[in-house]
């Protein structure tokens, strides 16, 4: 079996995959590959699939499957799998890091120091302790974020039509109720018909003035122009995001907006998570080889 390892994972993965067959990292080998393994850059779209007539299994090392045309792949009898459990801690830790950085003005503080300024009075910090956090999308990552926020003494509420109870947050029945009470909102939404463009001007208007918003879910769940306007008016005090309309976000209005903190889609990219994703990929291949997938 030929395995196309189309993107970079943990350095040891290619060697471990050799136990299952011939491993190639050359995209031109898609034409003869039986298995393709991608992260988020390589698109397993209609064109890719049509050019890969031997393909039987497409693995997305990660959570969201936006870069795989699942319906088309399945119509060609190609199995499509991901590694949904591996990344929860890595992404929750990044979301938490962003949530700490915003009210502590960490990027402005650092920049001012490098520029030879001493803004001790100007950079007034606020604490997370005692503040209300709203977690929107309370799946694996949202739960991990909520658990960490509890440890910081935050009051944690959640909204997710698919989750009624949580050990770490009080679940709200509707999004509007949640929005009105939160000092922080952390978005952990997949991109689907119910979430695309959800955070538009109308929804942002329902948040508390001065809210901080953190997005490690998907960029297209917010309307960037509306977010920029809300940042300019002060309705939103800060927006920290790891996710964009496109990677990289060339031409995005966020790049020049005030009070933003931007990271280059680093959520899943911890060293430990790359190893966990590698284990999960090997498990998928075990199951594929033994017909249990
Ligand atoms: P998950 O499937 O465990 O949780 C997603 C939750 O969102 C589900 O419980 C679902 O019911 C809920 N949801 C769906 N539509 C909703 C809506 N309209 N309103 C509120 N909740 C809604 O997934 P997860 O592992 O927690 O990952 C969440 C998302 O994070 C992924 O879909 C992916 O887009 C993103 N992600 C980003 C990175 C990164 O590098 N930044 C890495 C991994 C995952």
Structural class: alpha/beta
- Please count the helical segments: 10
| CATH topology (fold) name of the largest domain | Rossmann fold
Give the CA-CA distance, first to last residue. 16 Å
Structural domains: how many? 2
CATH architecture label name of the largest domain: 3-Layer(aba) Sandwich
By CATH, the superfamily of the largest domain comes out as NAD(P)-binding Rossmann-like Domain
Largest sheet: 7 strands, parallel
Integer-rounded radius of gyration: 21 Å
Low-confidence stretches: none
Q: Quick one: overall form?
A: elongated
Helix content: 25-40%
What is the number of beta strands? 12
| Main CATH class of the largest domain | Alpha Beta
User: Beta-strand level of the residues, as a percent range?
Assistant: 15-25%
Mean of residue pLDDT?
A: 97
Small-molecule components bound: nicotinamide-adenine-dinucleotide
Give the neighbour order of strands across the main sheet: 8-7-6-9-10-11-12
Strand-and-helix sequence, N→C?
EHEEHEHEHHEHEEHEHEHEEH
What would you say this structure looks like, in words?
The protein has 293 residues and is α/β, with parallel strands linked by helices. The chain folds into 2 domains: 2-84 and 271-290, Rossmann fold (3-Layer(aba) Sandwich), CATH 3.40.50; 88-262, Rossmann fold (3-Layer(aba) Sandwich), CATH 3.40.50. Helix content is 31%, strand content 17%. The protein contains 10 helices and 12 strands. The protein has helices at residues 13-17, 46-50, 70-75, 88-101, 106-114, 140-151, 175-181, 201-204, 224-233, 271-289; strands at residues 2-5, 22-24, 35-38, 57-60, 79-82, 132-136, 155-159, 170-172, 184-187, 211-215, 236-241, 260-262. The strands form 2 sheets. A 7-stranded parallel β-sheet has the order 8-7-6-9-10-11-12, sandwiched between helices. A 5-stranded parallel β-sheet has the order 2-1-3-4-5. Helix 6 (140-151) links the parallel strand 6 and strand 7 (155-159). Helix 4 crosses helix 6 (140-151). The longest helix is centred in the C-terminal third of the chain and has 19 residues, at 271-289. The radius of gyration is 21 Å and the shape is elongated. The chain starts with a strand and ends with a helix. The relative contact order is 0.13. The mean pLDDT is 97. It binds nicotinamide-adenine-dinucleotide. Nicotinamide-adenine-dinucleotide binds at residues 62-64, 84, 87-88, 91, 136-142, 159-163, 188-190, 192, 194-195, 216-218, 242-243, 265, 267-268.
